[in-house]
Amino acid sequence: MQVLMVHGLARTPLSLFWLARALQRAGFQVAHFGYVACAEPYARVVDRLRTRIRTLAAEGPYAIVAHSLGGLLVRGALDGSGIPVPYHVVMLGTPNRRSRMAEWAVRLAPWRWIAGEAGRKLADQDFYRALPRLPSPYTLIGGTRGLRLSWLPLGGRQNDGLVAVEEMRLEPDDHVIAVPASHSFMMNRRSVQQAVLQALSESSPAPG
What we know:
- By secondary structure, this protein is an alpha/beta fold.
- It has seven helices and six strands; from the N terminus they run βαβαβαβαααββα.
- It has a six-stranded parallel sheet with strand order 2-1-3-4-5-6, sandwiched between helices.
- Helix 3 (69-77) links the parallel strand 3 (62-67) and strand 4.
């Protein structure tokens, strides 16, 4: 079974190495999609991802595992343009609604440069309103190792240091699997890897 992995902002496919290894050991075939947010317009990244997904889908059933911004790129690519949808999508720390941390960070020039157009959209409410809903079943995994202090952008909300658990929900009643992990390296934790494997294995389509 094919699994496409999409990394987060200011990261590379290498950031998902240990998670990819765990998936491969479980019998999944892993493919990667890479991008450089500070060097590519958002629309170009989404178009490339859409092409990559279309190619992968032509080979048979597939799933997607995306970290952080990668999950929003996936939503943008799966916009109903005739692509066979994945049988499951797993999002790790993806802010699917208003990102308080991005709204704070966008005021800082260095962050705006590193984030590029795609990353700056995390602070754009109109961007979130226009994002398509996911057309396939999904699993949300969020970290809880962030500080919970009233004077920080995320305040006392349960968070991974960058994204609050409540910000991950696509729908108000979505369940988020909470794990003791920080945002940038949650994919390296065994508990996260096990949750990803469970989500993909339980939803895997029957052979034939």
